[in-house]
Amino acid sequence: MGRFGHTPYSQSRPTGCTLAPHRQLTRWLFQLGIVCLLIAPMQAFCLDEFQAAIDALKTKSYEEKTTAAVALAKINHPKVLDVLNAFLNGNLYKQKKTNKLVFAQKLEGGGFAISDPTTGVSLGEVRRRHVSKIGINNRLRRTVRGLVAGLKLNQPEPEGRIAAARSIAASGVAELQSVLETQREKETEPKVIEALDTAIVVFNLDAQDEVIRLNAIEKSAKNLDGQVRIKLTAIALDKDMSEDLRIAAEKSLHAIERAVSRYKFIETLFFGLSLGSVLVLAAIGLSITFGVMGVINMAHGELIMIGAYTTYVVQLLMPNHPELSLIIAIPAAFIVSGLVGIVIERCVIQFLYGRPLETLLATFGISLILQQAVRSIFSPLNRSVASPDWMTGSIEIAHGLSFTLNRLYILVFALFVFAGLLLVLQRTRLGLEVRAVTQNRAMARAMGIRSARVDVMTFGLGAGIAGVAGVALSQLTNVGPNLGQGYIVDSFLVVVFGGVGNLWGTMVAGLLLGVMNKFLEPVAGAVVAKILILFFIILFIQKRPRGLFPQRGRSGES
Amino acid sequence: MRNFRRITFVPTLIAAFTVIFTMPVWAGDTIKVGVLHSLSGTMAISETTLKDTVLMLIEEQNKKGGLLDRKLEAVVVDPASNWPLFAEKARELIEKNQVDVVFGCWTSVSRKSVLPVFEELNSLLFYPVQYEGEESSKNVFYTGAAPNQQAIPAVDYLMDQIGVKRWVLAGTDYVYPRTTNKILEAYLKDNGVADADIMINYTPFGHSDWQSIVSDVRKFGSAGKKTAVVSTINGDANVPFYKELGNQGISAEDIPVIAFSVGEEELSGIDTGPLVGHLAAWNYFMSVEADINDAFIDSWANYIEDEERVTNDPMEAHYIGFNMWVKAVEKAGTTDATAVQNAIVGVSVPNLSGGTATMMPNHHITKPVLIGEIQDDGQFDTVWQTSGTVVGDAWSDFLTGSKDITADWMSPLECGNYNVKTGKCSGQSYE
């Protein structure tokens, strides 16, 4: 332990170690006592309780840290919550030189800004290796989160109170049960009452008293909380428990099981649709270039990747607005990828129309060039694109059924992109010309449509949509040079399965393949599920070579 | 026109002569060190750092006066993440560039691809990455972890310290995860874990849709026993996996994931939020507190001119391997492959966590095993470590096929695949 408290706070407070009659505190208080005895003659005062408690966090042993954290939470001091929060968020450091506990904030250009935890006074800037972090492990993190929640259980927002109740239940710190019960008595919000009850049940499931325990087991019959379920299963399997408890636990578990399995089908369907929506997003741009123009564009995946990198760059330009930057990235990615697409069309593809094999090889070469270019510009390392808050976590649709938010947004987003594209093709002049050129190039030219211009615009549109898909993918997976490779084969599968040149076909095929994949995956495993799908498509193409929705008309027959 | 031609011709001639005349002087004066790491393609993400590490080590050695009074010279080639190209480039290094030693390879398949070349031409390869074991070559030195130096201690930690009773073995579908999981499954069953408490799952490379698998893991984990995921998921697939765990509300506190392929370098490019609290098992962490580690990090930051660049486990493996090679060459007094092979066994050098690493007769080294929890700054906090170092075991004791096999490259045995029961040496066949 280092030097203690020359702080305004410690001076204003009467010193002397007040020995709280708590068993868990005795260990460090004993150590503290010795230090007090040693230092007391030298310094005019004994240790400040708060300073001592936070210094106890400097130990290496996680067990001692836990004891110290629990002790700290008991102290009535305005900075307790700050210290616990900093500890939880990994901002609590030890300055190596002074052996003093400090708050540290990471700086832009490396290094840390450190400040005193008690006074908040800035202590200047230090390099990364001059401070060492006060480590926190899982068990301790859970405890500290519970302690923080215990201090915040009476906050004004009901959502905050619900989250706090959950954290307390997860922490398993027995001392916090009384905090829950106090809050339960004065709570009026029904949703919070529910969360508090669940948390109390979790504690009561571990109670020594058999009656309380049995009562809790019966109460938890309809409770879909994961914690409750784990505890119930543990009771049901424990041979040392009394017969009554085990039977009751078994009964409650059955009730829970029934409730869960009811939603299993909906959940899998959602997984399938969400995978399908990603496939649709990736494939729909290709559906235009391949389907409408007949160009086999192997660089399509790289156009998706460029869209994802655009998201990264936009986020880099406005680091403080992750929400806004994501919205801005959508048109930005459309423009950037679209322009790259137009350049590819003008420089390479326009000379190769009607020669699919050469186009395939040339665009494959382009895809390698683009990948290596990104490696040289952005480094081969993956880049991180932050998700805005409203895209993380999940939303509870019904009790026991929740959808992950990022997937849900992307599903909706895919539908919007699809509708937008459909509008462009059906309702605009460009769409009309594109359809005309697709159906009969010679006739369209005879009618005065500049087919070369239409080709450029169509390719740009397809590439732009690929860029937009990249924005969505940046929220799901790595933004790295290899991002596109993973999607190119799947995209071709979707387009061919759906019927070349048919947007609706791409939509239905993408969603169908996604759902099929997700229903197969739990049975067959991810690898085999993919193989089965491929096999199915090959068989399907044998039967119907033009896909699900073949294009009708003269061009369709040629 | 004529003038122009003459003007360009003369410098070209001079340049050509300079090259021709200085080349042999170089070759005679330096010891050549081959660097066989992908600088382009999918593996560039991990391997470029290792190339820089070797270059830094060579530079430092040259500052100390080189080796055997000669300077070291690096020969860098780019096998471009293309496995057959690894073999071609290895041959080019040894035959054309006449290198005395090669530091290189990352994936097992690239190692398998160059193995016959090194054995045919009798050269030396230092391989710095953790791998699945079941191999020991006279010409290869495995400075990364064998399964008993990473996977087994990690499972021990979860079993003894966390009390894990149910196991999800999740991996990417290729040789390293398959072999490692086979070993782990056998090990878990030896320790009394029932079949019903083990779930094994393989996914393709670059898998990005983890919804149903994570949902299965959650269901598997709600059976009343503490559950953990042992992940041999490779590379890029990790980020969406951890993200999905976070989104479905599974925290490291509920179901911890212990990974064998996620290190500082991989974490530096991503948003570490959803990963905090999950575990990794390695033989070195950048956060290890040792003076020698601080010095290494300082010189790395200076060399790469970036204060924020991280160090990782395979870098430490190259550090150890390079120093072992230097010591062995000094001991043998020559860079001749056979002499170095004999001299290097038993050589001890300091590792970066404050201990020492020794080359064993099976061409694997001794290593401490560390378990770390991922922190939000992309570093690991060591939560557990083995009391001493663990000797790398080439042939796993938990697989029926390899239980009786040992590797010992010292005389009289001189065999990488010796069956103790039958007393036969199966030569250089590793399958």
Explain what you see.
The complex is a heterodimer of chains A (about 550) and B (about 425). By secondary structure, chain A is mainly alpha-helical. Chain A folds into 3 domains: about 10-135, no CATH class; about 140-240, no CATH class; about 265-390 and about 400-490, no CATH class. Chain A contains 23 helices and 7 strands. Chain A has helices at about 10, 25-40, 50-55, 60-75, 80-90, 140-150, 160-170, 175-185, 190-205, 210-220, 225-235, 245-290, 300-315, 320-345, 355-380, 405-425, 430-440, 440-445, 450-475, 485-500, 505-525, 525-545, 555, and strands at about 90-95, 100-105, 110-115, 120-125, 130-135, 395-400, 400-405. In chain A, the strands form 2 sheets. Chain A has a 5-stranded antiparallel sheet. In chain A, helix 13 runs parallel beside helix 15 (about 355-380) and helix 14 (about 320-345) packs antiparallel against helix 19. The longest helix of chain A is centred in the middle third of the chain and has 50 residues, at about 245-290. Chain A is globular and about 90 Å long. Chain B has about 425 residues and is of the alpha/beta class. Chain B has a domain at about 150-250: Rossmann fold (3-Layer(aba) Sandwich), CATH 3.40.50. Helix content of chain B is about 40%, strand content about 20%. Chain B has helices at about 1-30, 45-65, 85-95, 110-120, 150-160, 175-190, 210-220, 240-245, 265, 290-305, 315-330, 335-345, and strands at about 30-35, 70-75, 100-105, 125, 140, 165-170, 200-205, 225-230, 255-260, 280, 350, 355-360, 365, 370-375, 380-385, 390, 405-410, 415-420, 425. In chain B, helix 2 (about 45-65) runs parallel beside helix 11 and helix 3 (about 85-95) packs parallel to helix 4. The radius of gyration of chain B is 23 Å and the shape is globular. Chain B starts with a helix and ends in a 6-residue tail after the last strand. At the A-B interface, helix 6, helix 11, helix 12, helix 16 and helix 21 of A face helix 2, strand 7, helix 7, helix 8 and strand 15 of B.
